[in-house]
Design brief:
The chain has 285 residues and is an all-alpha fold. Helices cover 76% and strands 3% of the residues.
Length: 285
């Protein structure tokens, strides 16, 4: 290979690498330095390499960290349970109506997330028909409510991020060779066995991708907790937003952001380990 041929991949990757350097790596390094500063908004901030801010952030906002992971995890599971049958239907049963159903899946993105979440606020109002119906069938007590509860926040997160689960699952299911399923049934496997032994393992890359696309932004979400929750339901994203925009405590806000990023990376590694990296690679190929 000539030197031009060897450099060609780097030239092709150059714009993407420059984009990542300019809009990801440099801001990341900047925020890391901000997290190690001390001071306040009145006198300014100086880089003093104060790592104690990380310990203080964990001890002060540990509840919000745990709550964010629990809410995001619950929303991810709910979305997976809803999205898998829907994606399966679109991939295998929708036929010529497939584009229509895919459009319906992404249609909520044509509306602002704030407006979508605010619409749920109206639907779960204490005097609304949904709450009245749930009280009527005994799901909620006479004084029970959905608004300003943890369930409302999880419901809002699940609704807002559902398309991120459906689309990767659909892509994974649509790529499965139907002849593999037919071969399983020809070998006297029941439909349930064929699904468990063939369809589900081959759909694992979609499960993994969809779970990441839901869990990662859901963990840092602050809109649903702010609109649908109460002060007792605030997530770590609400704390970071307040620290950056209201309190102007930039070091703590930056430290919380890095702690959240580290926690997400650890959880993703564990999740990938549970599913099996080798299995995911083989299924994707």
């Amino acid at each position: 290979m000539t030197w031009r041929q060897r450099l060609l991949p780097w030239w092709l990757a150059g714009p993407a690498l420059a984009w990542l350097l300019l809009f990801f790596a440099i801001p990341l390094i900047n925020q890391l330095s901000v997290s190690l500063m001390t001071g306040n908004s009145e006198v300014g901030y100086d880089l003093t390499w104060s790592f104690s801010v990380y310990g203080d952030a964990i001890s002060t906002y540990g509840d919000q960290f745990v709550r964010s992971v629990l809410y995001a995890g619950a929303a991810t599971i709910i979305d997976l349970v809803i999205a898998f049958p829907l994606a399966y239907f679109i991939a295998y049963k929708a036929g010529r109506w497939r584009p229509f159903w895919l459009l319906m899946v992404v249609m909520p993105f044509f509306v602002s997330q704030v407006m979508r979440t605010a619409s749920w606020k109206l639907m779960i109002n204490d005097s609304g028909p949904l709450v009245d119906a749930l009280r009527g069938i005994g799901v909620l007590g006479a004084d029970g409510r959905l608004d300003a509860t943890a369930g409302a926040v999880i419901l809002g997160i699940s609704y807002n991020f559902l398309p991120f689960m459906v689309l990767p699952l659909y892509a994974a299911l649509e790529r499965i060779d139907r002849r593999l399923i037919e071969a399983a049934t020809d070998l006297h496997a029941s439909r349930l066995t064929a699904f468990r032994k063939v369809t589900l393992p081959l759909a694992l890359p979609g499960v993994f991708a969809g779970s990441l696309l839901v869990f990662i932004p859901a963990t840092g979400d602050f809109i649903n907790a702010a609109i649908l929750g109460s002060p007792n339901n605030l997530m770590i994203g609400n704390v970071v937003q307040s620290k950056f925009l209201t309190v102007l405590d930039y070091p703590t806000a930056a430290a919380l952001s890095f702690l959240l990023m580290g926690a997400i990376l650890i959880l993703i590694a564990i999740f990938g380990r549970v599913l099996g990296t080798r299995t995911l690679t083989e299924a994707a190929s």
